[in-house]
Each structure stands twice: as C-alpha cells, then as structure tokens.
Amino acid sequence: MTVSRLYRVAILSVFVWALLFAPASGLWAQEAPVAVPPAASAQEVVPAQPVVAAPAATPAPVPPPKVDTGDTAWVLTSSALVLAMTVPGLAIFYGGMVRRKNALNTILQCFVVACLIGVQWVLWGYSLAFGPDKAHLIGGLEWLGLNGVGGDPNADYAATIPHQAFMVFQLMFAVITPALITGAFAERMKFSAFVVFILLWATLIYDPLAHWVWAVGGWMRNLGALDFAGGTVVHISSGVAGLACALVFGKRLGYGTERMSPHNLPLTVIGAGLLWVGWFGFNAGSAVASNALATSAFVVTNTAAAAAALAWMVAEWVYHGRPTALGAASGAVAGLVAITPASGFVGPVSSIWIGVGAGVLCYIAVVMKNRLGYDDALDAFGIHGVGGTWGALATGLFASKAVNSAGADGLFFGNPAQFGIQAVAVLGSWIFAFVGTYLILKVVDMTMGLRVTDDEERAGLDQSQHNEAAYS
After folding, report:
1. Which residue from 14, 126, 158, 343 puts its CA 20 to 30 A from 60's CA?
2. Contact, 205 vs 237, CB < 8 A?
C-alpha cells in the first residue's frame, strides 16, 4: 500500500471514528422529554373553599370520530408521494441499473405492479390485511370490494380521516413492496410468470404480514413489535423474498464473466432522488395526521438518508479508493430503508447512528454478494433485506417514549425487552417471507415456467417479452 493510500485511509478512519464513537454526552438531549414548568408557589395558592356536593350528572356521550381536513389533506398528499416512489421513482432507479436491452422491461414491471395491486387491494387485499381479525393471522372478508370502507373515520386506524383515505395510503405500501422484489430477478423472468407471481405474493405474503404487524389483533402487534412505516412489512419481506428469487432463478447468462454495469447511472441517481422525496410521505405520512409526530418522522428520515449516503461513500472510499455516484445513491436508499421502522420512535441523533449503520452494513452485504456468488441483480436483499433487518433491530435499541408516547423505550433507554420483541418480529418475518416466496416460485415454475429461454435472455427482455426497445 502506498504512502498516499495509507494517509487517505488514516484520514477516513478518523472521520468514521469521530462519527461513530464521539463522546455521547449531550447528544441525547434532543430526545429527552420536554421540561414541565414548576407548579405555582405556596403564596400563589388560592385558599380552599368549602366543598359543596354537586348533583350527579349523566355522563356526556362520547362524540363520534370527526374528519380533520388538515390530516386528510396530508394523508392524501402522502399517498401520492408514496405512489411516486414506485412510478416513476423505483422504476427509473432500477431501470438505469440494468443493461439497456432490459431497461423497458424493468420499468414496465414497476408500472404493472401498480396496476395489479391497485385492483387487488380494492377487491380483497385490504380486507385480508386490515379487516376484522381472524385468529391473529389474517383479516376477514367483511371488507371485500371495500364494502363498509367509506368516508367515515375508523376509530382503530383512522380516527381523524376518512377510512378510505387510510385505505388508499396503505395501498401505496402494498404497491411498492412487490415492486422492490423485481430488482432481484431482473433480466430473467417471463412476463406472464411475473404477473402471476406478483398477485400470489401480494395475497399470500404481504397481506398476512401487514395484518400481523399493523392490524388490530395481529400477533406481532399484540406482542408489542414496533414498525412505524414498514421495516418488517415492506423491506424485510421484499428483501428476503428477493434473496429467495435470486437463489431459485440462478445466475444470469454470463454472470461473473461478462460486464453487467448499469447502462444509465444518471437515471438511477434521479430515481434515488425521487425515492428520497417520496419517502417523506412514506414515513411522515405514517403518523396518519398532520402533527408533531409527522414532523419528527420527516426530520429523522432526511437525517438517516444523509448519514447513510456519507457512510457508504466513506466505506467505498476506504475499500476501493474512490466514492461513486451509484454508491451515494445506494447509501441514501439504505438509510431510508433502515429508518423506516424507527421513524416514529427515535430522535435526530439516533437517526444518524441508524443511518451510519445502514450505510456500512448494506455496503458490506453488497460486497459479500459478489463473493458468495448469488445473482441478486439490483441488490434487493443487500439493501432492503439487510437494511430492513438493521432498522427493525435498531428500533429496539433507540426507540424512546419521549418521541412517541404511544411507542416504547428501547434498550438504550432502559427497556431491554423491546430489543427481544423486535428480534422475534424480524425472525418471524424472515422465515415467513423466505419460505412462502420459495414455495410460490416453485409452484409457478412447475405450472408455467419462471425463466425466459437462453435466446430470449441474450436478445434482451425488451425485445423478447414486449417487441419494443427503450432506445431507438
């Protein structure tokens, strides 16, 4: 190693050390409870008056939930932001990372997921995910076709917004989750098999898992697992499903011998930027209100993304000698993934630690993928599986009731049991997503085949599956 390289590594190591291990005194002050003003002095106390018994009064009836127009406007805006994460955000983020002969197919997959789930969620998906609980595992069929899901608030999920507004917000989560998986099998899957797989996966994996974690009566919710915006439901499920896909599909033709670099990095960076913007709706919108908690989630989302992008670049700089645009974009997305479950439970300083951890851990996962030899084409597992796992566990470390009194304190705030609860939720999500995805893939493969032919793969999926080209 040259002297200049040693010098560079030393400087970067000091930077990482300062970021990770700086003295913590005062760092958590932002996350302490707000001080309560002292009570009035004795001199200011009004002398007690004789007590006169009041006649018994009939308790006033509890008013029904009332729609708040500000909350409704924010949730609808957030719904649009989350949809924009999939189309166009994820579509062009992934589209720029594949080879040019597969760009249109990759973008179209994200677009079609939005169409498929847009119908599935209305017909049966929402009822399975959030309908009245059945055995703590699945929602009932009472809300099929959105029967009973209208303009009135729902006290369990949407006390200040129309029930339908909550439904459409959750729809956008159900859209992006299977779309994330497409990065794992990019450039290999028959389009007909893709359509069937997405519908089966959304119904059999996403909907039950959403019920477990978020629905009234779900077993993970009853356990006390914290997942503000989808670390387990969205990112672990899609990332681990991506790992199962990579293993079942096998490698692309020429993997390891041919160059398979992204064909349009500017497109990928633009997509990452759109994901970053949309993520404010994803996380801050999960407060389901326009309030201080939404503001806090907004702040920590941005902070974690920035910290993770910097951490990934530093790791890349040390390991490869230079940072890259793809690394910065990937790091930002990794930070957004990791802060997702914690965004409603942690303060700004904690979000920096979560972001740094995501940048480093996800970078290591991507490097290890190349060494282990499995072909997760666009790092669905390395970023979403690993990032979601870290974020869910980190919630058990950094959560603070000073941020959200409806949550719980984590290990670092005096409640070690919460970390154990988070670990159980992570393990349950991993097993369910991996085994379920593997079985779905095997059934689809046996009935209609999963993978295009070698000739179709060499020609590119734009041509072989759609008879079109992304570029003239």
Report:
1. 158
2. yes
Nearest to residue 297, comparing CAs of 333, 346, 263, 336? 346
209 neighbors 435 (Cβ within 8 angstroms): no
What is the rounded distance in angstroms from the CA atom of residue 312 to the CA atom of residue 330?
8
In single-letter form, the type of residue at position 278 comes to G
> CB neighbours (10 Å) of residue 44?
7
The domain locations on the chain are: 69-466
Report the pLDDT value the prediction gives residue 55, as an integer from 0 to 100: 52
Give pTM, 2 decimals: 0.88
Q: Which H or E run contains 133?
A: strand 133-134
Give 307-359 pLDDT, tens digit per residue: 999 999 999 999 999 999 999 999 999 999 999 999 999 999 999 999 999 99
Which pairing describes strands 138-139 and 133-134: parallel, antiparallel, or unpaired?
antiparallel
The Cα 201–Cα 432 span in angstroms is 12
What's the rounded mean pLDDT across residues 437-452? 98
- pLDDT at position 292 over 60: yes
135, 98, 26: which is closest to 252 by C-alpha?
Answer: 98
The three-class DSSP label of residue 54 is coil
Q: Taking Cα atoms as reference points, which of 223, 316, 236, 326 lies closest to residue 272? A: 326
Q: Report the CATH number of the 69-466 domain.
A: 1.10.3430.10
Ramachandran class of 145: left when φ > 0, alpha when ψ lies in -120 to 50, beta otherwise: left
Q: What is the pLDDT of residues 189-230, one digit of tens each?
A: 999 999 999 999 999 999 999 999 999 999 999 999 999 999
Q: Bigger pLDDT: 113 or 319?
A: 113
- What's residue 105's pLDDT? 98
Contact 358, 239 (CB under 8 A): no
- Residue whose pair of structure tokens reads 């709706």 in the numeric block: 281
134/116 Cα distance (integer angstroms): 25
CA distances from 47 to 38, 39, 40, 428, 448 (A): 19, 16, 13, 60, 85
Per-residue tokens: 242: 């991506």
Q: What is the pLDDT of residue 231?
A: 97
CB 31 within 8 Å of CB 349: yes
DSSP 386-429: HHHHHHHHHHHHH--TTT-TTS---GGGT-HHHHHHHHHHHHHH
Taking alpha carbons only, the member of 201, 219, 197, 238 closest to residue 340 is 238
Contact 105, 311 (CB under 8 A): no
How far is it, in rounded angstroms, from Cα 181 to Cα 177? 7
User: Can you give the pLDDT at residue 32?
Assistant: 44
